[in-house]
Amino acid sequence: MGTNDADAGLVREMSASSDTTRERDLRFEAEALPFIDDVYRFALSLTRDAADADDVVQETFLRAYRSWHTFQPGSDARRWLFTITRNVFLRSRERERRHVDLEDGDLEALNTFAAHSDMVRDGSDQILSRIDLAPALRRALDELDEPFKSAVLLVDLEDQSYEAASQILGVPIGTVRSRLFRGRRILQDKLITYARDAGFSTAQRGQRGSKDD
Amino acid sequence: MTECNRDDIDCRTAVEKLWDYLDEELTPERMDDVRRHLERCGECLPHHDYARVFLAALSAAREGETRAPDALRRRVIDSLRAAGFTS
Whole-prediction pTM value? Predict the structure, then answer.
C-alpha cells in the first residue's frame, strides 16, 4: 500500500470516527438530555437540597455521557439515568449502604394493615380525611430515610415497576418490595403524627356528626 | 408446585399481597385470587380502599412541575462539552 492509500484510509477512518462521535452525541442529546427534568426531580427528592441536587444531576449526565456506549438503543433511557442518579447519590452518602434489609415484604404488608386496623379501631383513620394529604406526604417523603425513600420514589412517584426499581437500585425484587412496603408504612405513621400535631384528635370520631365547622 | 384452590385464599394471604395487588405486580391468577377475596371479605376490603386512597395521594405528591433550573441546564451542557460533547 502506498503512502497516499494509507493517508486516504486514515482520513476515511477519522471521518467515520467523527461521524460516529457526532451521531453518538446527537443520540445522547435526543434520548438522554430530555430527561433532565426527571433526573432533577429524582435528585432533588433524594438529596432534599437544591445545590446537592445540581451536583448529582451534573455528575449523572457526565457519567451517562461517558458510558453512553453501554446504553442499549431502544431501552428505557429514563430508567438508565435513574440508575446512574441513584448511584451518584449513594456514593455521596456512603453510610446508607450499611442498611440491613429485612427482606420480608409479606410481613411489612401485614404490619401496615394491622396498623390500619388499629387506626380504624381508635378512629385515627378519620384524621387522614381531615388533612391535605399531598403536602403532608411531600413533607413525610422529605423526612423518609434511605433506602426506603428511593423505593417509594421510584415505584409510587415515578411509576416504575418492581422489576425496573430492582434494576435501578441493583437489589433483588424482594428487597424492593420490603423497602417499598416499609417506606409506605413509615409514611402512614408520619401522616398520623402530623395530623395529631395539627390538633386533630381521635376523640373527634364520636363527634363527627356534630362537627360542622 | 401444586395447584391450590384459588377461591380460597385467606385474609392473611390477601393482606400480605394487597400492596402487590394494588401495584398490579401479581400473576393474573394471583390477581384474581385477591380480587375474589376482596369481593367477599368485609374485613379486608377497607384495607384495600384505604391503601388505594393512600397510593393515589402519594402519586399526586409527585412534584409534577419540577423543572431543572436554566442555570443547571447550562452547567450540565458545559460539563458535557468539556468531556467532548459536540452538540
Answer: 0.73
Q: In this predicted structure, what is the pLDDT of residue A132?
A: 80
Phi/psi zone of residue A152: left (φ > 0), alpha (ψ -120 to 50 degrees), beta? alpha
Tell whether A23 and A114 lie within a shared domain: no
Answer yes or no: do B80 and A61 touch at CB < 8 A: yes
pLDDT in tens, A103-138: 788 888 988 888 888 888 877 777 777 778 888 888
A182 neighbourhood in chain B, CB within 8 Å: none
**The three cell numbers locating residue B3:** 395447584
User: Can you give the CATH number for the domain in which A51 is found?
Assistant: 1.10.1740.10
Alpha carbon distance B28, A18 (integer Å): 50
What range defines the domain where residue A46 resides?
A: 3-94
Shortest CA gap B7–chain A (Å): 20
What is the complex's ipTM, to 2 decimals? 0.81
The three-class DSSP label of residue B34 is helix
Residue B26 placed within a domain: yes
